[in-house]
Specification:
By secondary structure, the protein is α+β, with helices and mostly antiparallel strands. Helix content is 32%, strand content 22%. A 5-stranded mixed β-sheet has the order 3-2-1-5-4, sandwiched between helices.
């Protein structure tokens, strides 16, 4: 690793926090969703969904380091409805599930009380010309 990569890694690792929302999509399907960086993973249990999203974080972070990019810089933030669900959800301590965060990441997780709603599509207003 060259000096530039080491500086990038130490700078980003010091400030890398990811909030993870966990919710049940349907019976037997749990979703883990990153909020600062909108990425998702599905699994049959809440613990497996959390582990799956953290494996994604780890894999994409390693890829970004190899390509001299800030970790997860290719992912936009999640919609506000997911942040709202996180804020009103039940905090989850990773240790309760025997989960360790990926190196250089601080992870805050919460289980949503209900599935976050998708944002409605933007309204299209047609203008009519008067003749």
């Amino acid at each position: 690793m060259n000096l530039h990569q080491q500086a990038l890694e130490s700078r980003d690792a010091a400030s890398s926090c990811l909030h993870v929302l966990l919710f049940q999509e349907m019976p037997g399907v749990w979703v883990g969703r990153g909020l600062e960086h909108d990425m998702m993973a599905e699994a049959p249990t809440v613990g497996q969904a959390l582990r799956a999203i953290l494996r994604l974080v780890e894999a994409h972070t390693a890829f970004d380091y190899r390509h001299n990019r800030a970790p997860l810089s290719g992912f936009r933030p999640a919609p506000q409805s997911c942040w709202n669900a996180f804020t009103t959800g039940t905090p989850l301590v990773l240790g309760q599930l025997g989960v360790e965060p990926p190196g250089g990441w601080q992870i805050a997780a919460a289980i949503a009380h209900r599935r976050p709603m998708a944002a409605p599509p933007p309204r299209v207003v047609e203008s009519r010309a008067a003749f």
